[in-house]
Amino acid sequence: MDGQSRTLRWWIGLHGALSIAFGVMLLFWPDISLYALTIAFGVYATATGAVGLVSLISGSLDGEHVGLALLSVVNLVVGVAVLVWPSISAVALLYVIGAWAIALGISTIGVAFFVPMRGSDSAGLALVGLVSVVVGVVMFVKPGDGALVLLALISAYLLVSGISQVIFAIDGKRIVERRKNDALSTATS
Fold it and tell me: Phi and psi at residue 31, in whole multiples of 5°?
């Protein structure tokens, strides 16, 4: 269990750090070309997906981590698709990123409800998922509202999501210890 939770926390922390880096890049490079944005997003999504799948395979995580597998596959598929199609139009890229955000949000909400955690931990993770879904929906509803506004929205989402994931990864040890104590108290009862 400790090895599995360490692997999961490591992946969540790494995903969060990559999200923060990508979000900061977008903040400080607002006039990024469409081609550069496409490649950067494709590399980011592919890297986080590949790291998650390697974590799953090398860590032999149990069935509880279906959410990590789903998040990893979504990231990998979207990242590879964008890298294979680097000449994607701006609107098409926004729709891809919007669909990606919705899929990740739904997966994150699922993890929040199906992985046993303390109520506030589940609520925090569900909130991150909800923000992801809202960002994705906004991209679908308002794709033509200006590239700069949408880049700022994507950047803000990545920063909030990344910081939340890093905090969750760091604080995950407390969650594991609580689960161990609960299991021990149940076993001795």
Answer: -100, 30
